[in-house]
Amino acid sequence: MAEKAGEIYYDIEIETSQLITANQKAKQELDNLGSQAKGAASGIKTLETQMKSSASAVSLATKAGGSFRSQFQQAGYQIQDFIVQVQGGQSALVAFSQQGSQLAGAFGPGGAVLGAVIALGTVVAGSLITALSGGKNAMDALKDAAEEMDKVITIS
Question: What single-letter DSSP state applies at residue 23?
């Protein structure tokens, strides 16, 4: 049998203002995080749409690229040849005049015309560079280059 011997009372004081403030701040931060997550989800959805669109475009380009296969292959060869020439000590300008004109020529008649312009332009540029490095003043070198161009180009 149990007997009651007395009672014990505890007074507990809790300062809740800091706890309430911290709780409100945490709620606000969680709300902000939720808003940011919604924004990120929207951004991801937009990115997904763009990726699907890009994938479709790449697929179409790949299918259409079959007709350009030989031109792309030729371009690769000319770029490799240019690099090998320059690595071998050839002037970059000379290598560009040779490989650049061949590269342009691989893209049909328009490319062939562009290739001729590249070859001619590098001859003029080479003459100008040589003249400028040889010690002539800039005006004389420019005059010489213009005269060289007049010999090759006729304007009617």
Answer: H
